Amino acid sequence: MGVQAPFGIAEEFALWSVWMGSSGMDPAPHGNRVLNYLDQEQSTLQGKLSRNSNNMHLNSTTDQFLSALQAGCFVGDWLGEDQETDPSMVIENVDVPFLVVAAAGHSSTPCTVSWSEPECRIVFDTNRNWEMSWNGKVRPDFSGPSTVSINRDPDFQDLEDFENRSFCEFQKTRQQVLNEGIRTGEEWSSILSYFRRCLVPSSIQSRESGAGAGLVDTD
Q1: What CA–CA distance (Å, rounded) separates 90 from 151?
Q2: Is the pTM above the cut of 0.70?
Q3: Among residues 138, 14, 163, 168, which one has the least CA distance to residue 76?
């Protein structure tokens, strides 16, 4: 990805991007932000997971924000486990909270994700549909760093108390996106500039220095 993230994290990032696209959203703004945080050394991939009597707790091991790339991987693994001992997880100071939502959405697990700046709640049901409710003018998908809470139980109570609500019928939206595509913005050029850092020239010199998978000469 051009920011020295492990290949496995890059694969997860791609899957979350597919989920955002299937939900009718351009994934580039969120991807660009999380890569910028890492590139500018405002965030770290180093996280520590602990458990107390009430929930799982995830935080950065430095004074930097915790990258949503790492937080989302933790969340995906945690939601994928069939267990009742840890009903909730709290993740401190995540740089791009909505990428954690994307990780939860990709997991296809009913759950609730929330944070306080802005006050919001995103709820996933058993059919992969999801509803986003929030207060204030800033949509949660564009909010800044925040502490994120995730609960395994979908919490649809009192959603009418929020000022704003948005519902996504996932399968219907996904089919519409497959038929019509999605509108994209200028951030894709920045995303591509990061990805180009991972590429090398297709030349004899680059192959001689070790580039390629080594299966054939032109890999």
Answers
A1: 9
A2: yes
A3: 14
